[in-house]
Amino acid sequence: MMMNGFEWDSKGNAYRKRHKLSNGQYCEVRFYKNGSDYETIYYVAFAVANKKKNLSGWFAETSDNNITLKSTGRCGLEALVWCYHTITEFEQGLSEQVSASKREIKLAIIGEDHRRFQMYEKALSKKGYCKVFLYGEWSMIKTVKYASAQ
């Protein structure tokens, strides 16, 4: 199942997109779907690694995971800019798909640590995200508007 170039991972219940960076590293963003009767929340996960198998290991939490918070990549801002544009692309795809849905559709971004969260808060608040305390963690949340309402 595809949506605007995003691959559906039924095992992980997530949409995903991977990209090779100019320095040879890989980055991947996943949108994990979690729903209730009233809303669907897509939690955003993003990682950078030297090899594709390390990305897969991080997302699947297997022994191939060698990604740490101390080593987040040698690519400078390239990976973050790609992720930022990919989130925008995913939002647009969702807004086109949810027009018939009765549920609210939200995107949630949680930083791994305080430093990262502050950076996400600064960048994402300009795109309509709000800081919300969700399930015990500070999150940046955006309700996706229907394509006709935008």
CATH architecture label: 3-Layer(aba) Sandwich
Provide mean pLDDT, rounded.
83
- Helix/strand order: EEEEEHHEHEE
Query: What is the strand tally?
Result: 8
Radius of gyration: 15 Å
Which strand-content bin applies to the residues? 25-35%
Write up this protein:
The protein is α+β, with helices and mostly antiparallel strands and 150 residues long. It has one domain: Aminopeptidase (3-Layer(aba) Sandwich). The chain is 27% helix and 35% strand. The protein has helices at 52-60, 78-97, 114-124, and strands spanning 2-3, 6-9, 14-20, 26-35, 39-49, 104-109, 130-134, 137-143. A hairpin with a 3-residue loop joins β4 (26-35) and β5. The protein is globular and about 40 Å long.
In short:
The protein is of the alpha+beta class and 150 residues long. It has helices at 52-60, 78-97, 114-124, and strands at residues 2-3, 6-9, 14-20, 26-35, 39-49, 104-109, 130-134, 137-143.
What is the secondary structure topology, with strand pairs?
Elements: E1 2-3, E2 6-9, E3 14-20, E4 26-35, E5 39-49, H1 52-60, H2 78-97, E6 104-109, H3 114-124, E7 130-134, E8 137-143
Parallel strand pairs: 5-6
Antiparallel strand pairs: 1-2, 2-3, 3-4, 4-5, 6-8, 7-8
